[in-house]
Write a structure and sequence with these properties.
This protein has a six-stranded mixed beta sheet, covered by helices on one side. Helices cover 40% and strands 19% of the residues. The C terminus is likely disordered. It is α+β, with helices and mostly antiparallel strands. The chain is elongated.
Length: 384
């Protein structure tokens, strides 16, 4: 069972939507819990269709704040037992064994004067069912100063309230691999603050049933929170090779124009079909070489820069790397824009302008075309 949880403060941003889709495609989670979606029901329904997970429970946002969603694959037997603007509670029955266990996506009050309401909610949930239980999400609190770096000293009363609620529910912290902190204010120098606000908690019975489960902190530049990936394995999906096709995003580069110009200026017999075909072949070869060695594979560039980004996050203990982290954040955002143009081209929706930024539509069109080609048996195994 793989679960994914993320507070990324707004599903309306096309970049964050793309990132969510990327995580879902790569890790194939059975359950996805999203907090602070800042969307009404119709907005989250569109996200469900895009990530191809059609079952779900949606708690709409209150204006431009809040909003929760728990999505699950159709082969998961899940029953929603309760919800509020701070939680979604469900029971899962395993089809193979009939074993029942409980899962709760949780979002704690960010306001200090309301945190006691969060812990009261946890304790009330604890008394409802006698089942093995996992509770994960953004609790908006730490249990000790070891989970905070930078800024003023945390209120001991606040931390004690959270710790007492954990103990009252019989929870065990599942730990993590990856960066020590799950949230950053993204400021630079001495003003930078790190906190471990997101975590997964489980009862002893749940841990005994899932002894191999691990929690992974996965950072992405589009959010100030990390992603919680709860899994018993990390298996990356292989990248598919693609045949040559001209990318619209290349035209933004002057050196791309130079590559094309050099090819055609040096070509001969352009008035004959054979000469034209040879010129096109040379142009494709030179553009492929330029793309591979100069421009680079956009998705791989994004992954490479995210790797460096995550490394800087791990090393940044006093805000020293704040400026460099923010620079990488900007570079990744620019690459995500190029990736959006790439999806636009693949959608073949040529009547839409590139600046419309309708990534939802582009991805839907490309995915629909891919499914159609697969059904018709004409899908090229090497890609689009």
């Amino acid at each position: 069972m793989i679960c994914l949880g993320w507070n990324y403060r707004g599903l309306g941003n096309p970049r964050t939507v793309n990132v969510v889709c990327g995580f879902v495609q790569r890790w194939d989670p059975k359950i996805v819990f999203l907090s602070e979606t800042k969307l009404k029901r119709a907005g989250v329904e569109r996200i469900k269709r895009k990530v191809q997970i059609f079952d779900g429970m949606i708690v709409p946002s209150d204006g431009k704040s809040g909003g929760l969603a728990m999505l699950w694959k159709k082969d998961v037997k899940l029953e929603i037992m309760g919800y509020s603007k701070n939680h979604i509670d469900a029971i899962i029955t395993e089809s193979s064994s009939g074993f029942k266990w409980r899962i709760t996506g949780f979002y704690g009050h960010p306001e200090a004067h309301l945190k006691h309401e969060s812990w009261k909610l946890l304790e009330n949930l604890n008394g409802r069912y006698n089942l093995s239980w996992i509770c994960f999400g953004d609790f908006n609190e730490v249990v000790s100063m070891d989970e905070k770096l930078g800024g003023v000293i945390r209120s001991q009363q606040q931390m004690d309230g959270f710790r007492n609620a954990i103990n009252s529910c019989g929870f065990k912290d599942l730990g993590y691999s990856g960066p020590d902190f799950t949230w950053c204010n993204n400021r630079e120098g001495s003003h930078r603050i790190y906190l471990r606000l997101d975590r997964a908690l489980a009862t002893t019975g749940w841990c005994d049933h899932f002894p191999e489960v691990r929690v992974h902190h996965l950072f992405d530049s589009t959010s100030d929170h990390c992603v919680l990936l709860i899994s018993d394995s990390l298996i990356a999906r292989p990248l598919q090779k693609r045949r040559f096709h001209f990318e619209a995003m290349w035209t933004k580069r002057d050196d791309c124009r130079e590559v094309i110009k050099d090819v055609w200026e040096s070509s001969i017999n352009m008035n004959s079909p054979d000469g034209l075909a040879e010129g096109l072949k040379r142009c494709a070869a030179d553009l492929s070489h330029w793309n591979r060695n100069v421009f680079g594979h956009v998705s791989r560039q994004i992954q490479a820069k995210r790797k460096v980004f995550n490394s800087l996050i791990l090393r940044d203990r006093d805000g020293y790397y704040g400026a460099e982290i923010n620079r990488f954040r900007k570079e990744i955002s620019d690459l995500l824009d190029s990736e959006e143009i790439m999806w636009s081209q693949r959608s073949k929706a040529l009547w839409l302008k590139e600046g419309d930024r309708n990534t939802k539509f582009f991805h839907h069109r490309a995915s629909k075309r891919r499914r159609k080609n697969t059904i018709n048996g004409i899908w090229d195994a090497n890609g689009i």
